[in-house]
Amino acid sequence: MHSNRPATQQTADDCAKCGACTAVCPVYQVTGRESQTARGRLHLLGRLTRPSSAAYSAIISSCLLCGACRDACPRGIDTLAAVIHARQQLPPLAHHQFLEKLLARKTFASPRLLKSLSSLRNSLLKNLPKASGLWLKLAFLPEDYAQQMIPPDFSTAENKPGPQAISFFSGCLARYLSPVIGTATAFLTREATGSSLLVPEEQTCCGLASFGSGNREEARKLARKNIAAFAGHNLPILTSCASCYSHLRSYPELLADDPAWADRAKHFAARLQEFSQFFAGSGLFSPPAQTAGSAQDLPRVFYHDPCHLRFGPEKITAAPRTLIRDLYGSLPVELARGPHCCGQGGLFRLAHPDLADQIFSSALTELMELSVAHVVTTCSGCLLQWQQGIGKGGHDCQCSHLAVFLARIIRQGRESPAAMSRDNRGNSAIPQTR
Ligand code: SF4
Ligand code: SF4
Q1: Relative to the alpha carbon of 39, which ligand is closest?
Q2: 160 and 192 share a domain?
Q3: Residue whose CA is closest, atom 1 of ligand 2?
């Protein structure tokens, strides 16, 4: 079963059992189960020769692939690669059947949810490719969520085509379900660079959901399709989704053993631009004029760090905060214990909704103590998790993609500068995004 057992065994042997990974694991923090940590899984992988039980599948699937353990490991062990490799080696369809059964059970148990999904299919999602990981994520939205997600019109007049200097990888959320993210990104691009966005029609799902669930071949197919979609030019490739960006960056590794695509994958990855770094680096957004004490009076904004950026190789945490400070006029507030995983983890939420809810609840409890008016983030999965969690809890707090938040600030400030300062009740207008 383990065709690469020597490599797996070596990885397991490299583990010093120090527990640094356990201390930072969001799943361990809510379950206290050693088997659901990197250390526990490595121990298991180093000793099992024919893993096939349901318990084993559950252990291997109960990882968010957040990267916190890999980031903390003093031995530099690629703990995520070990989990993904284990998922690829699961008995035929064990992992996928587990997810699909859960999906079917949840969906068919709720006629209202079915109706909702069907209406989504018939309208907003009629063009969503079958391979998109968004299908699985959508199956767990509450019944009224589709209505909440219908994007506001973001003034198409502001998006007249100009010189096409930047291309855009939208990701499934911005392309099919919440196009306001793409529209807002186009607006910001034009404000910052004077350029319009080139959005190749042939682009498809980044493939992270396929890769994370162990379907490497499907992930490779999607990667080739995306590389080909952006091959007609050498423009930078901007993406507004943190998870997509993180996975697109891994294409060279994913296609390293494919002679026809390895170099093309490297060229593609070298052109990628992460959303917040791109705009923070543009230097074209001037901070608003501040009066003494004004920043403290603004409604509080919280920026949620997507794990793919926080634990990725570039550790992108400063750029989004800089953008918020420069355009909103105040730095976002921080949780008492620092950034916190939201619990979405792509398909993790699908396989382990209760664990996902527990991890999210713990973040939300901390957040509510800060009287936050607006949550912003740059990851499609995190955005769904926060919008769903805040909506379900009935909290008086908005949640939107950073692109939408920033675009609204600029437009609102331009149309009505007074709206960006305090009103006569001493409150500053918060951009409306839903
Ligand atoms: S990737 Fe995240 S959830 Fe998975 S074992 Fe590591 S820290 Fe835990
Ligand atoms: S941090 Fe690394 S070396 Fe330490 S227990 Fe975890 S995987 Fe093993």
Answers
A1: 2
A2: yes
A3: 73
The CA-to-CA distance between both ends of the chain, in Å, stands at 50
Q: How many domains does the structure of the chain reveal?
A: 4
Residue 400 token pair: 């939107």
Residues 187 and 239 in one domain: yes
Say which range, 72-81, 192-201, 216-225, has the weakest mean pLDDT. Answer: 192-201
Pocket test for ligand 1, best of 15, 37, 39, 45 (most atoms within 8 A of CB): 37
Q: Does residue 164 sit in the same domain as residue 259?
A: yes
Give the CATH number for residue 202.
Answer: 1.20.1050
* Amino acid at residue number 121: R
Specify the DSSP element, H or E, that contains 376.
strand 372-377
Least distant ligand from the CA of 21: 2
Note the ligand closest to the C-alpha atom of 84.
1
Ligand 2 environment, Cβ below 6 A: 15-21, 38-39, 42, 72-73, 75, 77, 79
Domain membership of residue 84 as a residue range: 5-91
pLDDT tens per residue, range 65-121? 999 999 999 999 999 999 998 888 776 545 555 555 455 445 444 445 545 554 554
CATH number assigned to the domain comprising residue 347: 3.40.50
SS3 assignment for 204-258: CCCCHHHHHCCCHHHHHHHHHHHHHHCCCCCCCEEECCHHHHHHHCCHHHHCCCC
Q: Which atom of ligand 1 is nearest to the CA of 21?
A: 7
Atom of ligand 1 nearest to the CA of 341: 2
Most confident stretch, 90-94, 98-102, 269-273, 362-366: 269-273
20 and 36 both lie in a single domain: yes
Please report whether residue 255 resides in a domain.
yes
Clarify whether residues 295 and 414 are in a common domain.
yes
Q: Does some domain include residue 430?
A: no
Q: How far is the CA of 71 from the centre of ligand 2 (A)?
A: 10
Alpha carbon of 38 to ligand 2 centroid (Å): 7
Asked whether the beta carbons of 237 and 167 are under 8 A apart, the reply is yes
- Whether 22 is covered by a domain: the verdict is yes
Task: Assess if residue 102 is contained within a domain.
Answer: yes
Centroid of ligand 2 to alpha carbon of 69 (angstroms): 8
Can you tell me the distance from the alpha carbon of 411 to that of 419, in angstroms, rounded to the nearest whole number?
Answer: 10
Q: Which pLDDT band holds residue 3 (cuts at 50, 70, 90)?
A: very low
